[in-house]
Amino acid sequence: MPATFKTEAVVLRSIRYGEADRILHLYTVDHGRVGAIAKGVRRARSRMGGRLEPLARVRLVLRRGRGDLCTVTSVDTVSAHPGLWERRASLERASQACESVLRLLDSSDPNPAAYHLLCNQLALLDRAPDAATRAQSLAFRLKLLLAAGFAPELASCAACGEAEHLAGFSPAAGGTVCPACEAGAFPLGGEAHGFLVAALGRPLAQAPTASDVALGQADRAIAETLEHHAHVRLRRVA
Question: Global pTM?
């Protein structure tokens, strides 16, 4: 990577540092996770200050130094997502999405699919207040598992390949299981299974709905898949 490079990123987190600086956790389209420092950004006259808020999508020029952090030398806003800050539910769902990316994707390896998924989620929540639902957030998290390479097996028994009578979910096996392989599994009803399948297959804007019971089972399947295979524990989606 050159000493100075351009990239597009979403600001996942911003932390105050010193008297006027901020430490940024960025997820970029072509460099994966990047840590950066924005010097003097908290000063009243800073040209960059309002452009580096969490949840913003930006174009950056970064300079790589001797340490782990790059230095922001220039920033332009692609989208500040102003609608997120006007609605508490949208803001909470957007923050959950960024937290999921922050915890799950900590590598500098690029993952364009995950980056564009996050951008689509933030844009959807920004323009569509009705999208800020538990079901939609679970659909995002499941698609993020797919982008990260941890999507569960849903079409057949993850242990033996049986395609019929799937009634449980085994994080250790990696997905749905049949009655013969359900040792250590938890119940996954037909509605929850259908939700997971539809959530993977549909665009984010067309995320399926389900009952609270089914969403609870789907949430557990996603959470325990993350814990078992990615060794990441995320807060459940409420």
Answer: 0.95
Six token digits for residue 186: 């938890």
Cα 92 from chain centroid (whole Å): 13
- Give 188-230 pLDDT, tens digit per residue: 999 999 999 999 999 999 999 999 999 999 999 999 999 999 9
Strands of 175-177's sheet, edge to edge?
Answer: 175-177, 168-170, 186-187
Task: Using DSSP, state whether 161 is helix, strand or coil.
Answer: coil
Of the candidates 50, 140, 48, 135, the one whose C-alpha atom is nearest the C-alpha of residue 94 is: 140
Left if phi > 0, otherwise alpha if psi is -120 to 50, otherwise beta: which for 131?
alpha
CA nearest neighbour of 38 among 72, 77, 5: 72
**Could you give the domains of the chain?**
4-82 (2.40.50.140), 85-230 (1.20.1440)
Q: Whose CA is closest to 138, among 32, 211, 57? A: 211
Contacts of 18 (CB under 8 A, 6+ apart): none
CB atoms within 10 A of CB 179: 12
The answer to whether the CB of 111 falls within 8 A of the CB of 80 is no
Contact by Cβ (8 Å): 188, 168: yes
